[in-house]
Amino acid sequence: MIARQRPIVLALIGLVGLAAGCRRETEPIALNRGPSPLAIRLEHLRHLGMGVVVNGKPVRVVSLYAEAPDYRLVGSPARDGFEGIASVDDAARAAVVYLRDYEVSGDVRSHDEALGLLAFITAMEQGDGEFVNFIDSAGRLNRNAPSSRKSMSYWAARSIWALGEAVRVLGPKDSAQLKSMRPVLDRAIARMAREIDAGRLIGESTTATAEALLGLRALERSEQTLDRAQRSRDLVSLAKRTGDLIAARSAGTMSTAPWGAHVDGPGASWHAWGARSVEALAKPENSLGGLEHSASARQEAHGLWGRFMLAGRIPATVAPDGTASWYPQIAYGIGSIVDGYLALADVSNDPRYAVFAGLIAGWFLGANPERLSMYDEKTGLTFDGIDGPTPLRVNRNSGAESTIEALLALQRVTINPTAAEYVNYRPVGELSTSLANVPNQREYVGPAGERLFLRRGGSGLEIARGDQVAGDPDSGTSGPATPTPIVSARAAKVSAPITLTYWPAANPAETRLAMRLTAEWNLVNPDVQVRAQPLPAGRSSEEVLLAAIVAKATPDVSSNVSSALLARLVRAGGVVRLDNRVATSARLKERTNSAMLASLRLPDGGIYAFPWKTNPEMLMYNVDMFKAAGIDPPRTHKELLDAWHKFARDTDGDGRLDRWAMWATLKTTWYERFYDFYPLYLASSGGKTLVNNGKIVFENAAAASALDLLRRGFAEGVLPSSNFALGRDPFMDGTVAMKIIGPWFVKELDELKVRGLHFDVTPVPGANGTDPDSSFAFADLRSIAIFSTTRHPDAAARFVAYLTSPAADRLLIEEASQLPYRRDLASDPRFTVSLARWPTLSTYATYVERSRDVDIDPDVVEIFDILSEAYEESAIYRTTSVSDALKKAASEARNVVNAR
User: Fold this and answer.
1) Cβ(284)–Cβ(348) under 8 Å?
2) Is the pLDDT of residue 19 over 70?
3) Per-residue pLDDT for 225 more than 80?
4) CA–CA distance, 63 with 785 (Å, rounded to integer)
5) Measured between alpha carbons, how far is residue 469 from residues 7, 338, 458, 484 in Å?
6) How far is CA 534 from CA 115, 551, 792, in A?
7) What is the DSSP letter of 684?
8) Is the pLDDT of residue 530 over 70?
9) What sign does the dihedral 386-387-391-395 (CA atoms) show?
């Protein structure tokens, strides 16, 4: 019997613990950081919520108004004709807020509020795709007011938006609730199509039409996911026709008023309120209508909105001749511009748009004439606006529309690292009074004195850093000859650049990717230069990084940190917390959700390494061998054992088996269990891992089933009883028909070009009777860490956010056949082409969110070492029963965790 191995990594772990006390002097450096991430709070929106009964159904609505100072709820005032107490207009947009919050946070309260509001929306539909808008306190519909009567208008358009978002976010998870709502959505879309095909804007408004188009876009994405081909094609066609109609309402040019504004008709003024044409038209240029629609969106953003940026403020309306009316300033007139810029940032990969979005969003936090924060981070309350200039009159009421529009904009800002970094900047100098005569250049200043300059350029506004600009920033005559574009969310405050050291993994594909990304970063970030060098040679990444900590020679950033190592690094004070820094907090929200992060949080709730890439393990099988054997890929442990018997045979007649279904290694090194016991266990455990809050939890039926399966395989002679020669892969040469492996192996197969090998993947089989929907894959997660020795943690956080951007993630897929740890990866259209680059990668991608890694526990290596001994004793040599081996392993593991 092989004695339990004590790898060198355990010895180094001990040294790290001893070194921890010697490193405390580095921690204050890492804790000195800039502003905290902006908090999105829904408390005031919940305060505005009410339960009512409409058409005999209990639903949720949002109060129209809340009056200062106590913010009691009130209905429509006399000036508006006593329309009612709540509207579909507000409920639909509030539903979008709650759905987006649920998508990121997983907060069940947001889920339930969204469903309650959607129930109200569907109750207000009149059976033909048209909606009534207002109700009174008794739940009676207001069918008479012009702003409420049954029609295909603003409130119908926003209903399409909300219901489309509901299908996208909730999807199959809430199929029962959505089933009753889907006919309403289908009727509304059919009614919308009649307006569009007649050449009419919904409600005679580009705003309303754009908001309906947002619903179509959300629905289009979900329909593609559900493989409803014809319905998807119909949606794409209607979205194209709708976008054409909006784009045709573009007025003026880049140089003539109203500078590309999308208006409701000839001679109409542009208004800021709900100006979502840019957001709705922004789409990838390689999609149907994308080139024309995106060009129209960019023209308004560069032409009209560019003048806003140079003016230093947003007008309420712009007349056809360019005359601006500057008041009132309300959230409804700011948020849609923020969202439009962010939509362009998403589809173009041009970071300027995110910078502009952050600067505009500053209005909510004090970048307004009153220098008053309109948004309260403690509650989410947002003032109703600034009514006039002389004297400045702030409306401190906080009703539904202001609160909702602020939240819609700020939700998106806080998931974009660049926009989030600029939200605290302010315009400098006298604000313009005319859009026709704005300066050529405008300075903005950050909270620590960082200077940023926007100036007119050949491709719209260009960005220059403060240390590159000479002369009077408001003169319109001076500035840098070639402003430097930026990727990271920072304008340089000093001329001397920061230098960061970055250690990527040493394997060739990741090294090439790291060098490429670093070179691109350095090109556009002269203020933060990164020196990349692969991890120094060593037995493993863990050993190299632990040794570096002991020697106080860690880099600023490393991108190959395993979960097995992380808890020890945290205990040693070796890494920086990332969820409380602006750039990495935003990227975590953009990329993941609460469920994906739950198992990665340390006891203090923090995220100390950025979950970068995952290799969810699946069962890869030889298609031709399975076809010849006449069997389907196994789904249960019983079917897997049957397949082992089916494939085990002697092909050369020497009396010994030389072909098998698969193999399980005889090695007992702790990480070898990643390819046999642990994935088989996770496939049956419902997501339960080995340790939970310091408690050992693996003494269960899932672990027993996995060990028993392996025991029977060895006992019945259908698993090889010896290891294969080093360097030989028996799957590639047809010796075995299956192996448990992650997507990284797909690239290896492609490079070796094994002739005649046709393969596919299927989920790792679970124990007999396991619900397939509760099956999880082993994640084999690798994270990016910022080490506490860094003197520039915020700059390092911006670099990490860049390494995990959508553009970088596409390269990770395309160049390394590895998957970013990203929600909705399999259905996100931004990654469809990249995933198609490699066979089976789209299937692997479906398991990104249904995966579990090793526990972030300081003793997890020791625990796996103990389980390897249980595997050796009960499965390979069968000197003890499975139940006794598990009982002994659990007892030893408890002793380990209880001793710390």
Assistant:
1) no
2) no
3) no
4) 45
5) 56, 26, 18, 11
6) 49, 18, 21
7) T
8) yes
9) negative
% of the chain surpassing 90 pLDDT: 74
Alpha carbon dihedral 349, 353, 355, 361, in 10-degree steps, equals -130
Structure tokens at 208: 């309303």
| Tokens read off for 268 | 């109409």
Location of structure tokens 């904009």 = 409
pLDDT tens per residue across span 687-723:
999 999 889 999 999 999 999 999 999 999 999 988 8
Give the torsion through C-alpha atoms of 146, 147, 152, 154, to 10 deg: 150
Query: Is the pLDDT at 466 greater than 80, yes or no?
Result: no
3-state secondary structure of 427: strand
- Is 584 in contact with 795 (CB distance < 8 Å)? no
Helices 229-247 and 290-311: crossing angle, nearest 10°?
50
What does the DSSP 8-state code read for residue 481? S
121 vs 48, 88, 90, 147, 180, CA distance in Å? Answer: 17, 6, 10, 16, 12
Distance CA 320, CA 221 (A): 36
The model carries a pTM of: 0.90
User: How far, in Å, CA of 226 to CA of 377, rounded?
Assistant: 38
The sign one gets for the Cα dihedral 188, 193, 196, 198 is negative
- 450: exposed, middle or buried (C-beta count within 10 Å: 0-12, 13-18, 19+)? buried
Q: Phi and psi dihedrals of 700, rounded to 5? A: -150, 180
Q: Is a pLDDT exceeding 70 seen at residue 621?
A: yes
Question: In the Cβ-directed half-sphere of 900, how many Cα atoms lie within 13 Å?
Answer: 15
Q: Which DSSP string corresponds to 568-634?
A: HHHHTT-B---TTSHHHHHHHHHH--HHHHHTT--TTS---SEEEEE---EEEEEHHHHHHHT-PPP
Structure tokens of 789? 């020795």
Long-range contacts of 888-896 (CB under 8 A, 24+ apart): 889/698, 889/699, 890/696, 890/698, 890/699, 892/866, 893/690, 893/691, 893/696, 893/698, 893/859, 893/862, 893/863, 893/866, 893/867, 894/696, 896/859, 896/862, 896/863, 896/866
User: Could you say which DSSP state residue 661 is in?
Assistant: S
**What are the tens digits of pLDDT across the range 794-815?**
999 999 999 999 999 999 999 9
- The four Cα atoms 589, 590, 594, 595 give a dihedral, to 10 degrees, of -160
Neighbours of 417 (CB within 10 A): 31
| Percent of residues in the chain assigned helix, strand, coil, to nearest 5 | 45, 15, 40
